[in-house]
Amino acid sequence: MKHKIIVTCVSLAMTLLPLDSALAYSHCNRYGGSTQHSYGSTSHESAYGTSTSHTYGEGTSHTNVYGGSTSHNYYGGTTHTNAYGGSTSGEVGYGATHTYDNGATAYHPPDPYYGYHPPTTYYGYHPPAPYYPGCYDCGSTAGAVAVGAAVGMVTGAAIASSTASSQSAAASQNAYAQGYTAGATTANTANANAAAANANAAAANANAAAVNANMAAAGATGAAVAAGSYSMGQIVSVLPAGCITPNVGSGTYYLCGNTWFSPSYGAGGVYYKVVPTP
Questions:
Q1: Same domain, yes or no, for 82 and 8?
Q2: pLDDT tens digit string along 215-237?
Q3: For the whole model, what pTM was predicted?
């Protein structure tokens, strides 16, 4: 078989040699997998039956060994279909939608967006103190008196201006401090909200993973369930044939032979748990 694969790959390579201008090639590995590439498109098939393909401008798709598939669009958006028929589609900013194999759907909205926070308030320019030029005839007595009066007026004005400037600066500093504190409080609140949203999303993902694990365990024990072998607390995804629904109290129960089941609902749909006789 190995010699046959090698001969096939060599023959294909010799066939593609004249097509060098087409920028295409093919490759086979020793385990039976193969890879093909042409301009703008690449595909790969493994020896186990999985396959992956990518086309420029369109997107990428993958099929796993169990029959599930995943595809991603070039312009955004990803879709996954599992082996049981359920599918999940999501895109950034639009949320995610899951369809169960029984036709039920569930929608998860996108994470909230916390808007723009403006900068702190800007307090305008404060001009310098006024400049007063020299005087004429300052050497005479009258000039000296005039100079003294002028100096006194200037000194008083400067003191008044300095006091007003100090009060204005103090008021500006207080207002700035209040604005900064308010901005920091708002930013801390936004960060706390974002952290809470992330924690909620993580918890939701953990719950979904637990439900998927339970469903997988139920599917794995399907053969044992079909054969009628049950244990207390066991969870199954489908009931065996021939079950009846007795009228017991206010709950819903299924009696299958000598085994009682109670239905429950989760992220993966309805499932059934083995319970004691009600």
A1: yes
A2: 665 555 444 444 468 999 999 99
A3: 0.32
